[in-house]
Design a protein that fits this description.
Blueprint lengths: L4 H15 L6 H8 L3 H13 L3 E3 L5 E3 L1 H23 L4 H11 L5 H14 L1
Antiparallel strand pairs: 1-2
Helix pairs in contact: 1-2, 1-3, 1-4, 2-3, 4-5, 4-6
Amino acid sequence: MALQESGEMYLETILILSRQGGYVRSVDISEHMGYSKPSVSRAVGLLKAGNYIVIDEDGHITLTEAGLQTAEKIMRRHELLTELLVSLGVDREIAAADACKMEHVISDETYEAIHNHMKTME
């Protein structure tokens, strides 16, 4: 099942929240993303059906291997694109917001080219 941008955003959010420690619940996602609980509930259901997450009996959400791989891929793209834009002189806050939009639409080929370019610039 191919994920849409919103699904990728949810996975990235779950990864961020899980790295901050503790359990991740739908309410945490709702608060972090500023989305309504019904919207989050629907998205969580789709992610569970797609085998990107598991939910235990207490409502704690954990990324599956596929979910973790996708979330890490999106996070790497976000970080790289933010750094690229900052290196071009864009304010970090604006760069992070723009990277959040760009990370979902660039191809793997473009990501790799940017990654390789940034390595040569170090």
